[in-house]
Design a protein that fits this description.
This protein is an alpha/beta fold. It has helices at residues 2-23, 105-108, 163-184, 231-250, 257-274, 280-300, 312-329, 332-342, 352-359, 365-376, 380-389, and strands at residues 28-35, 38-44, 48-52, 74-80, 93-95, 101-104, 112-115, 120-122, 131-133, 139-141, 145-148, 154-157, 193-199, 206-212, 215-221, 252-254, 347-349. The protein contains 11 helices and 17 strands. The longest helix is centred in the first third of the chain and has 22 residues, at 2-23. The model is unreliable at 1-12 and 15-25 (pLDDT under 50). The protein binds zinc ion.
């Protein structure tokens, strides 16, 4: 196997450095190769003589094996593949505990490119050129990511000593996925690849995850510090990310993030309730907690308008509180119906939420006014929650 792989790699390099440059000299391309714990990225950028590497790579760059100036448009950067789960949203390289890793395509592209004629283009400019990434058996090429590993629908890593939790996670994942499929329709696009990685590094319990189109990545840290009763935090985190398969991958979401994140929060708890993982009493106390937290936030930030506020707190907590408000003013079927309407199209905007509510004949006029006030008017969040709870 080792020899075959080596022959294949040699073949790829020959193709890359001889044929490609002559056959398609005008195309920019990237080829990736892995050597032990190093990732080597080869760039072919005709007529370029300098590239500036994305600063996200600063801490993992191997400078001695990196060449950012060139006479013939060929550059090379070498990264150290090291396992680290940062507190940042995206890691420069997300390395899982089995050695497989995820790369964000955006970071792969040079920050700036300088050409022989002195022109410089920056990644944020419209004039920035397109790149093709050469395919390879060792990685999966997605729209927004490259996953260096095997394509398996779902992998749960790092729970060898806690088989009960591992089985539960798999069960929850499948049940929640099926629940959303039944309620909101089956996924037509390519099914997601899922990695759920549990690690113990002696720190606090912490989790983070993201959905890059059809790739779901979960990192859960130090779960041994949780008693079993708290496992539903992990379950709801898992259910939250799965909802993004519907609300940002199968159907593209545009506009403000409160709709995108708030709905994932809302349906994560709802799905766990429907599947019997949390009881009605618990759901009620969770929903009250969201409403109260959102209320207090906007009491303290009374000049802010929910639709214009991009803080994580408002997006997640008040985005969910908005859904809870709609449920309490009407009923939970109405919330489902609104989302079924949004999912009728391949894409939707955050403003479509209120439009769909306005168009729904069974919704009370008063509800429409409360929801509109909550989203778009100064003081609206506080007024709506006060009216609801008789504060
Ligand atoms: Zn989310």
């Amino acid at each position: 196997m080792w020899n075959i792989s080596l022959v294949f790699k040699t073949f790829l390099f020959l193709v890359f450095f001889t044929c490609i440059s002559s056959l398609s000299a005008k195309y920019n391309s990237i080829l990736l190769d892995k050597n032990k714990d190093e990732l080597i990225i080869y760039y072919n950028i005709p007529s370029a003589n300098y590239i500036e590497i994305d600063s996200h790579y600063d801490n993992i760059l191997i400078k001695g094996k990196t060449f950012t100036t060139s006479m013939d448009g060929k550059f090379k950067i070498t990264l150290n593949i090291k396992s680290e789960v940062s507190r940042e949203f995206y890691d420069p390289l997300r390395v899982y505990s089995n050695g497989e890793f995820l790369l964000y395509k955006d970071y792969l592209l040079p920050k700036t490119i300088r050409y022989e004629n002195g022109t410089v283009v920056n990644k944020i400019q419209d004039t920035y050129p397109n790149f093709s990434i050469l395919e390879n058996d060792e990685y999966i090429l997605g729209n927004r990511y490259i996953f260096w590993g095997d394509e398996k629908p779902i992998k749960i890593l790092g729970l060898e000593k806690n088989r009960d939790l591992k089985e539960n996670i798999l069960k929850v994942y499948k049940e929640v996925f099926n629940y959303y499929s039944n309620v909101f329709g089956h996924i037509i696009k390519k099914k997601p690849v899922v990695v759920i990685d549990f690690t113990e590094n002696g720190g606090d319990f912490h989790y983070k995850g993201d959905v890059l189109d059809d790739f779901l990545s979960y990192n859960v840290l130090n779960v041994s510090k949780l008693d079993k009763g708290k496992y539903h935090q992990i379950y709801s985190f898992i259910a939250h990310e799965i909802f993004h398969i519907w609300n940002s991958y199968e159907h593209n979401h545009f506009g403000k993030s409160w709709l995108h994140e708030g709905s994932a929060e809302y349906f994560s708890i709802k799905s766990l309730f429907k599947l019997g993982y949390v009881d009605a009493h618990k759901v009620e106390s969770i929903q009250r907690a969201y409403l109260n937290a959102c209320y207090r936030y906007y009491k303290d930030n009374s000049k802010k308008i929910m639709n214009e506020n991009n803080s994580d707190f408002s997006i997640y907590v008040c985005g969910n509180a908005l859904h809870i408000l709609l449920e309490k003013l009407e009923n939970e079927n109405i919330v489902l119906d609104i989302w079924k309407i949004l999912f009728k199209d391949s894409s939707y905007n955050s403003d479509d939420f209120i439009y769909s509510i306005k168009k729904q004949p069974s919704i009370k006029k008063e509800t429409i006014a409360r929801i509109y006030d909550f989203i778009y008017r100064e003081g609206g969040v506080v007024r709506s929650i006060e009216l609801l709870s008789g504060k």
